[in-house]
């Protein structure tokens, strides 16, 4: 089921201050709490007066037909087509009014500046990265894949849990910084994770399976940025960090079921750190091809 369907994306106007991006509720929404906001919107033809966002905003149209638009980005006229499958990006602080002549659907994602500092391993005192708006439609298959994954997460298909969500957002922030940054940024590099660091990370995960193993916490343990840790872990193991955590939790659940045949499965799910019983069932079935209850009956 989708997350609560209420507005999570807001704009600032001179006349009304902070107001919802659109008055009607979105088709689906997710995020919030200052980290990010996602909305799937279906809106009629219309217009918005001059407005700004408090965060960077990605828009990916998902309708069937192109829609004509007219805008003024910081006073400069911009016009053309809003094309399905082709992104538009508005940087934080830029101002525009806009008009569109037909109904449209789109996926919207806001990215606050703090997310970029976390993704790139920078302190809050670091000079914020400068991003440049790009309203002309452009294709980015990697970014589209990431945004659709965030959409699936927001719609309730939360197989990876919070670590998966954080990994997606970190990847989006890192990609956006290089795609829309004012000049190329040199990100942290490293082809692989040293063996001792890999062993340390595995040990920490195994010892804290029942805890909230979020990306920021794991990066702090390894003294690395979330983006760098995620990238070198995948280069080393061929799998993402959240996939590895799920695999560890599934293996521990498998071991506990075999070792404690009378222990309630809900207790095992909690002990292994699964966010919900439904996630426990889905992950266990992914790795072992059967539900936990089916495995227990086979013993």
Automatic annotation (TrEMBL):
Keyword entries, A-Z: DNA-binding, Methyltransferase, Transcription, Transcription regulation, Transferase
Regions that span the bilayer: none
EC code(s) of this entry: 2.1.1.-
GO biological process: methylation
Residue span(s) of domain HTH araC/xylS-type: 199-298
A Pfam family assignment: HTH_18
Gene3D superfamilies named in the record: Homeodomain-like
Annotated GO MF terms: DNA-binding transcription factor activity; methyltransferase activity; sequence-specific DNA binding
Protein name: Bifunctional transcriptional activator/DNA repair enzyme AdaA
Lineage: unclassified sequences, metagenomes, ecological metagenomes
Recorded name of the encoding gene: adaA_2
């Amino acid at each position: 089921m989708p997350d609560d369907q209420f507005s999570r994306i807001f704009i600032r106007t001179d006349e009304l201050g902070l107001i919802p991006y659109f008055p009607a509720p979105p088709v689906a929404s997710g995020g919030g709490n200052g980290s990010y906001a996602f909305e799937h919107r279906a809106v009629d033809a219309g217009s918005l007066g001059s407005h700004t966002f408090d965060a960077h905003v990605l828009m990916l149209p998902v309708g069937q037909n192109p829609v004509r638009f007219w805008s003024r980005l910081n006073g400069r006229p911009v016009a053309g087509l809003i094309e399905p499958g082709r992104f538009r990006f508005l940087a934080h602080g830029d101002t525009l009014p806009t008009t569109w002549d037909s109904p449209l659907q789109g996926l919207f994602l806001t990215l606050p500046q703090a997310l970029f500092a976390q993704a790139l391993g920078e302190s809050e005192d670091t000079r914020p990265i400068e991003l440049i708006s790009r309203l002309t439609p452009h294709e980015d298959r990697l970014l589209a894949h990431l945004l659709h994954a965030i959409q699936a997460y927001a719609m309730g298909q939360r197989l990876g849990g919070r670590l998966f969500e954080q990994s997606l957002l970190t990847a989006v922030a890192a990609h956006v910084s290089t795609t829309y940054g004012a000049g190329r940024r040199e990100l942290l590099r490293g082809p692989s994770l040293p063996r001792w660091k890999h062993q340390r990370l595995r040990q920490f995960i195994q010892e804290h399976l029942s805890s909230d193993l979020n990306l920021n916490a794991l990066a702090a343990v390894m003294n690395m940025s979330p983006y760098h840790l995620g990238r070198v872990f995948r280069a080393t193991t061929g799998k993402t960090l959240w996939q590895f955590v799920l695999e560890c939790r599934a293996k521990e659940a498998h071991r506990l079921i075999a070792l404690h045949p009378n222990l309630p499965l809900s207790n095992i799910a909690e002990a292994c750190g699964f966010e919900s019983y439904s996630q426990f069932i889905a992950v266990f079935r992914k790795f072992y091809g059967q539900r936990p209850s089916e495995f227990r009956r086979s013993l």
